Amino acid sequence: MSAIIEHSTSVVPGDGKLEILLIEDDPGDAFLFEELLGEELPDARIVQARTLREARERLRPGIHCAVVDLSLPDAEGLDLLRAVLDMAPRSAVLVLTGRSDAAVGVAAVAAGAEDYLIKHEVDGPLLARAIRYALERKRAEDSERQLMEAELRSEENARIELGLLPVPLIDDPELQHHTRYRPGRERALLGGDFYDTVQTADGTVHLVIGDVCGHGPDEASLGVRLRMAWRTLVLAGHTGMDLLGTLDTVLGHERWSEEIFTTLSMVTIAPDRQRARFRMAGHPAPLLFGETTATALPDDAYGPALGLFPGSEWPAAEVELTGRWSLMLYTDGLIEGRVGGGPDRLGTEGLVEMASAARAQGLTGDLLIDHLVTAVEALNGEALTDDLAVVMLSGKAAR
To answer: Could you tell me the CATH number of the domain that includes residue 28?
Structure first.
């Protein structure tokens, strides 16, 4: 007859009872099993199944441990074990073998059982200890599996996010392109900031950098969509007000709330590399580096952020590029750090002063960007928490 003993438990974490499924067709062995456990684990609930078919009917998510005799009327050996493992992937499995079947027990552990015991050599303490060990080992295996699954998901997400960062479309060997990108979200690779660089067939180089308000995955997704829309529009021949107006429309359709807006700075560099036309939509002014100096582009090309006022206009301004020059576009994560632990922010003026000193030291390209980020963090007293993106393009004006 089937035997069921019901009690509460202190073996299994939480308020649930320790439930054990005994898969054993010998009534004498089943009775002995229950007697031994009754002394050592009086708060356990034991359910017996005489066949694999009965075990299939009685296995349920609440079963914490299955104790399996590998010789049943309708199944035996490792085939029986594999069937139980398939039916109860979240349960610990303990195998019972005869004296002459120790090798089978070892093979059972290799096949997925937590442990094995030899019948007629088992006493109460050994049986209780084996069950506890099997439960702990199963929990450890589940934790390791969940950790591996989390790591695989993290690696997959990392590949996806890295794949969404742009590859600049530039074929002018005289231009040097440098970027830095660091999201504010912990363990993320993509934030709401975005950037891109595209050279069109006539030799004109277009740069953009933008910042979607907010820091979550939704903002990151929107930033990617806006960047891709910008690249598509540029390659289709759209520029200036036409381009910004279309992006404003795209933002209106793609955002999930009317409160979402995007700041943006856009620069177009002439094929002769002697002029740069720029527009700013609520975004910090880019920096222009000369041989030994740094200046912010004038704010007379300033309009509202995208998504705020329908029908907005964004005036353009133009600067002359002479000699060897560099243009640096950045998001406000670089200038909103605090200065000296007080309430004051670095701001554009502070960044210009810092950048001028670095340029006077002869720093360029990656070294210049890294120096600025490190110096900003030092003033802030800790790592920057906002999304941060920097794009620097360097070249030489044609004579």
So the answer is: 3.40.50.2300
